[in-house]
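Researcher: I'm preparing a figure for a lab meeting and need a structural model of a single chain. I don't have an experimental structure, so a prediction will have to do for now. The sequence is pasted below. Please return the structure as tokens so I can convert it later.
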Amino acid sequence: MLLADHTVQTVILGAVLLGVVSGVLGCFAVLRQQSLMGDVLSHAALPGICLGFLVAGTRDYGSLMAGAFLAGAAAAGCVTVLARMGRLKMDAALGIVLGVFFAAGIVLLTRIQAGAGSGQAGLSAFLFGQAAAVLRSDLWVMAGVAAVALTLIAAFWKEFKLVTFDPAFARAEGLPVLVLEGALTVMIALAIVVGLQMVGVVLMTAMVIAPAAAARQWVDRLGPMIWLSAAFGTVAGVTGALISAQARGLATGPLIVLVASAITLGSILLAPGRGVVWQGLAARRAARGLHTQQVLVTMFRLAQGHGDPAFRSAEGLVDAYHGAPSARTMDQLRDRGLVRQTTQAPDPARHWELTDAGRTAAREELDRRDA
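Model: Understood. Here is the structure written out token by token.
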């Protein structure tokens, strides 16, 4: 049985931890419009991993993650310094720091791999992830990091929420906004550290952003968004891990990211009220209703122009006036009791006249436009 396999169980547990912590902390990155910061932190983790290996002298998971976290925190600090003191725009600062740190990581990784010894084996797997290499001891480290991040979120929930939505008001209230923003950035770095071995440096930013972006399409409040984002992250992680286990030869990390991206795309298309499909349907209904009111006003003005409240408007005349077929609209107005179908001998075409209710509705529409 697939779930009875020890390796599969380990990968699934790691995927659950990754999905929860990245889903929760990704919400703050998305709402603070710092999606690219996740990309910077994930790429900046590579030199930290290499330095952690050089310090420990072996591929110790705890040392590698500590190095990754410190490098991510250093990158975040560099971005802040460049943006605030170097007179650079935020996107320029992010791009510079990302390039420099990732290039330094590649140089260090190449140097380590060129050296003698087998201790560096598998170190390059952190680029794209290697879920099968996750050990039960690694899960304890991941769980500890996740617990620290989630505990901080719970302890400072109100402060983080206020800083995320209204930093100016938070500053006026006397809150240490800079410290709180830094803490959020550090916790995003923690989320990235959790998923490096599962998903890898290159793809980890997608796991931070995709579940939160998907959840944002469905809800309008931070609390439900965090729960839903964690659920989406967990589903993506577990589904990707199971697909990888069943289809040998497919990398787990990219599959997890693809599932998360599919959830995001589906949410963008189908989320009620906010989804592209629903907005398209709403716009179509609104356009249809607007056309109905326009036809009603047109018939009223034609009747006024002929000095006959019971003037019979030919359907073709209404079509020509609006430059579009009006048969369906006329049927809708008839069903609503606003017009009635008549004949005008010897013309066999359909003619319409306003009912009393139709004339009243047309006058109300004209009054509304004039108001």
